[in-house]
Amino acid sequence: MADRVEITGADTLVAEGAVELLQGARRLSATRLVYDRAAGLLQIEGPIRVQEGAGTLLLADAAELAPDLSEGVLRAVRLVLDQRLQIAAAEARRSRGGQLFELERSVASSCEVCPGGGPPLWQIRARRVSHDLAARKLIFEHARFELGGLPIFYLPRLSLPDPSISRASGFLTPSLRSTTTLGPGLELP
Q1: Are 42 and 67 in contact (CB under 8 A)?
Q2: Read out DSSP for the chain?
Q3: Do 28 and 43 form a contact (C-beta atoms < 8 A)?
Q4: Is the overall model pTM greater than 0.85, yes or no?
């Protein structure tokens, strides 16, 4: 669906203005989409918003994806998992039929974005984050854990459970809390 759809040549469809694409449980919205049937490629211009079921929201500036949205490359990406964990990345690749999502040069945190653009209370910076949907886990490569923007420790590899899992082994994310007796602090699960 789009405000304007045009077919150019024999194999190219151009949709512009309030573009919506439905593919199974995925719902994509963007400002412009070019489908090249001969190449089997969707070129999408954003802002792009992809809702995958109830638990995954994907935001990006631009993308080149397969027609079924399962494989391809996205640029300037923000992935929100289960409304709890946000991962921002310069670039992301979908592969293995949409079961593996690799985010390059990433920052992950469950903290809300601070007003004024300051660093979140805690974050994990990584060279690459792999979200394996089949195994339901996140794997951080060359991860650096930071508190208030200051590096605390480095791990060459860190594995976290997908936020949709209620019980799993791995690094459990802390939360900020404040009580009248103890004052502000971090609560560890």
Answers
A1: yes
A2: --SEEEEETTTEEEEEEEEEEEETTEEEEEEEEEEETTTTEEEEEEEEEEEETTTEEEEEEEEEE-TTSSSEEEEEEEEEETTTEEEEEEEEEEEGGGTEEEEEEEEEESSPPPGGGPPPSEEEEEEEEEEETTTTEEEEEEEEEEETTEEEEEEEEEEEE-TT-SS-SSPPPPEEEEETTTEEEEE--
A3: no
A4: no
Instruction: Summarize pLDDT for 63-110 with one digit per residue, the tens.
Output: 998 888 888 999 999 988 888 888 999 999 988 777 888 999 999 888
Per residue in 101-122, pLDDT (tens digit) is 899 999 988 876 666 667 778 8
